[in-house]
Design brief:
Two copies of one chain form a homodimer. Chain A has 612 residues and is an alpha/beta fold. Chain A has 18 helices and 27 strands. In chain A, β16 (365-369) and β17 (374-380) form a beta hairpin. Chain A is globular. At the A-B interface, α5, β7, α6, β14 and α17 of A face α5, β7, α6, β14 and α17 of B.
Chain lengths: 612, 612
Amino acid sequence: MQVFPVDFQPAGRRVKIEAGQTILAAAQKVGLQLGEGGLAAPCGGRGLCGHCRVKVVTGAAGEPTAVERGFLKPEELQQGYRLACQAVVQGPLKVDIPTESLLGVQELQVEGLEVGVVPEPLVARYTVPLSRTTIDNPRPLWQQVAAELGTKIGAGQVRVDPNLARDEEPLADESAAVVTVRSEEVINIYRRQPVPPPLGLAVDLGTTKIAGFLLNLETGALLAASGLMNPQIAYGEDVMARLAYALEGDADYEAIRQVELEGLNNLASALAAKAGVEPTAIEEVVIAGNTAMHHLLLKLPVAQLARAPYVAALTTPLEVKARSLGLNFAPGAVVYFLPVIAGFVGGDHVAMILASRIDRPAKFTLGLDIGTNTEIGLSYNGKMLSCSCASGPAFEGAHIAQGMRAVSGAISAVRLSDDGNEVFWQSIAGAPPLGICGSGVLDAIAELYRCGILNAGGRLDTSHPRVRRPLGGGPPEFLLVPSEQAGIDSDLVVTQKDISEIQLAKAAIASGTSLLLEAAGLELNDLEEIVVAGAFGTHLRLESAIGIGMFPNLPLDKFRQVGNAAGTGACLTLLSASERRRAEAIARQVGYIELMNQQSFNDVFITSLMLP
Amino acid sequence: MQVFPVDFQPAGRRVKIEAGQTILAAAQKVGLQLGEGGLAAPCGGRGLCGHCRVKVVTGAAGEPTAVERGFLKPEELQQGYRLACQAVVQGPLKVDIPTESLLGVQELQVEGLEVGVVPEPLVARYTVPLSRTTIDNPRPLWQQVAAELGTKIGAGQVRVDPNLARDEEPLADESAAVVTVRSEEVINIYRRQPVPPPLGLAVDLGTTKIAGFLLNLETGALLAASGLMNPQIAYGEDVMARLAYALEGDADYEAIRQVELEGLNNLASALAAKAGVEPTAIEEVVIAGNTAMHHLLLKLPVAQLARAPYVAALTTPLEVKARSLGLNFAPGAVVYFLPVIAGFVGGDHVAMILASRIDRPAKFTLGLDIGTNTEIGLSYNGKMLSCSCASGPAFEGAHIAQGMRAVSGAISAVRLSDDGNEVFWQSIAGAPPLGICGSGVLDAIAELYRCGILNAGGRLDTSHPRVRRPLGGGPPEFLLVPSEQAGIDSDLVVTQKDISEIQLAKAAIASGTSLLLEAAGLELNDLEEIVVAGAFGTHLRLESAIGIGMFPNLPLDKFRQVGNAAGTGACLTLLSASERRRAEAIARQVGYIELMNQQSFNDVFITSLMLP
């Protein structure tokens, strides 16, 4: 049977697949997730949902099926749009995955810590009486507003944001209006009903994911939470690729920045729609971003961020008018950027420390926020030290043969019988398994080691009945779920390469922990608490993480899994000026350790590759 | 002899002139001022200076002379550029007057009041020690600056303007730097010598003129002062024409705004060059603008400014980043806009009141700032009232047959013998007279009335030997200077139409004064002081202004002529935060009287047309 290459854009993945297979099968083979909610979801590739839209740029993919003619308009078909579950490979293909198919707005991990906070917002609301502007009463709107506010917040201090004044009809025609004031400046006005409460948006801006939280600034109530994939992924999966893109020239920098802005505007629109308001009702924004995302959004210099010693251009907190950035919120809304600590320790880490309260000097605490980069913070004796380690995207399901994100159909937990002959697994939402997410891979490898099927060097025991060579030859793999039980037409396996990926990730995290303790002059047993943050960190099985040596071997009751603490920290600083000051104090206080500068780094890293 | 029409663009003036006359003669006939320093100056149209460049768009203007071939490049000649003093009218012409010929940067009235002020600038300078950013010291520039400043202005308060951070190399490579801080934000940095002092720019932004003052913010020293014609003149001489232009659509609004921005950037560059610095050394800017100029620069809504009751969109003071407006100063420089009072009483009036100190409740004071619009302020019993009257551009030399601005060659003072047969005149710089400026016209008309050559209705006595009918017929005119004594080839005269123009102007000012007093319940004799501001107001002869009834008939020692008080006021608010607060208090305190709303306006105005 003939085999043809299929190139997927903009992901840059290539796969060879037999003629007659669907484009969806090709995408699955290469780990691409199409359609809302993940791989060919929600219909499982049965042609029922129409979500797996792709565009065939060059090559033959058969005639459109009746299903496609039902979901796609004639002009779309003419432009090459197809449903990946219907179009079949009949020759070499170049396939474009539209952003909406790859990156649809979807629920991510957004639950956070429950942290008590008394709302102390930076904006305040006032209702001001007005009288109609006429020849006899020639006082325009803002003059009346300023005079009224003057009696409340001090005469002579009142300003009006010029963008707001540009947008509004200057003559008063109403008997009252509601205004929002920030630092003595009027930043928004409601001249008729309905008047939504003052709303704020907190954003955890990561390389892969953007999580957003819409809050009532007066009550602190969470009105909506949502996440989306950072659309900048189209410009490179990791930070370095994106920095390299931005460094190619001003137009490229602006392009990659616009994509991020668009993502933020879309996220805000989606959140506002959930809450039944307009995005222009958002009057204050906080962004807790990793340093690269922070710099790219602000268009700060990034050359120095892309080479040793990976230095941030600007670490201080910032207040910028949303409009001046290109964000469509209330006319005078301010975006507050949490301070960053270093090139790879950003505002998200500050927010994580804030939310998990590990800055409190009472305990010796280690805080880990696991992501493509894992930031680790250590609090001891009233001091704080942080470092960053490149743990890679394996825990997000990337670079894992059958990896996928933690969405419906992902195997999220694995146990083996002691002899390893029986596999017990759980999938998210109980759906037929389509792939394995981070916690599932971690479990599988920890269990393989526990059962002796994997040695300390990470090699599979090829004599075990479930360990086999793949069909076309190559390194061995462990059969997790045979195709009969899977939601896809192939066996689900853990490959030798998957194990290496996890070894690299766990070695990065373990060496960071070890070197941070060394720099502080502490021993493992000095640690009284280990806080684990992030979506993956919250859902992983601690026994597995300890089992492969990713986390220190300490009693389980010392661990605290806290969810998206960075998001929670962003919410805290959105709601409270005191929390904002506290976050800034954290950023100034934290000492940064550059792991690459530690003489023992290479030794420690290589040792840490061993299991556990 | 044949007569042809000549159309001047963009001024929109048309004149009919005999074949063989120069374009310069045509321009003079229609009152246009070409060349630096005024009408055909400095050479008087003798082909010596090359300043009267115009562009012949259509029509025949003879072959270029040797003089023109000397001053103009071949490609310029090919494009139609000519010297107005050389090119002769040989048919109907359309002539474009390039901005540089009409509006060249030149010295205007910039001297102001001497007002004592203790500099209390809004920016502060700090020298911060730095150490080189290296692998072993990975602290970037701004982190070091913020840490150093934190010890001086309070930890946790330091911000860096994002534009500044965008512009600067983020790695430190020096042992110290000088930074400028405003409201806890770093807005400028000097990383190598020379380090200019902190500089500020104060601007009096008028419809016709823009005056700029460059000051040392620490010492208060005036480093340079300059003025230029507002280049927006190309879009209309008066405020209404410019508003109409802006209202034609967003692109038109943006175009007229860009021209004003360009004017401000050019003014700043000229001032900086005089002081031997770059415009980017300007770290704080104050703009005292009339309301229309203020709105057009900020792109605020202006529809309501162009129709009764002529309401300002925004009257409150504003702070805007210069970069966000399009002004090229220090990266983080702030532009402070003085508050405005009403549609035709702007920040320049506030600045005038501030500088002339008429807000002090000790005296009953009237303050007049004479321009195309004349603003009048009245201070009494601790209260203030202001109004605006449309006095027109006659005192700027416009709409006067042989009017010109107050530059070299303008007749600035006139006396008559009691019988009116002898005329004594002075010209600016003692140059041969080329035309008459505002103070000269005012003098001439006052003297004509004093000598009985003009009656109270403003009619010339046609039996007087110097009163004659013009050559082509029409209303009578008074011969001021015969052509033999003039610097141009025609007699200098005062026409019946000139007298009407001045009557209208004086009636506007007198009615404003009268109605303001009426609104306050005061009599003329209650006034203890009359402050007269503005270039024309400072140079006019009080006796003449009183003689025609433009100013109230009060003892001369009650008058105080204070120069460009608006400019001085702008300087005061630039130098001192206290003065800024005081200006804002003035703006809030002043009550505004709309003359059109006063029932007695028409009666008073018509009565005021009479001399005196």
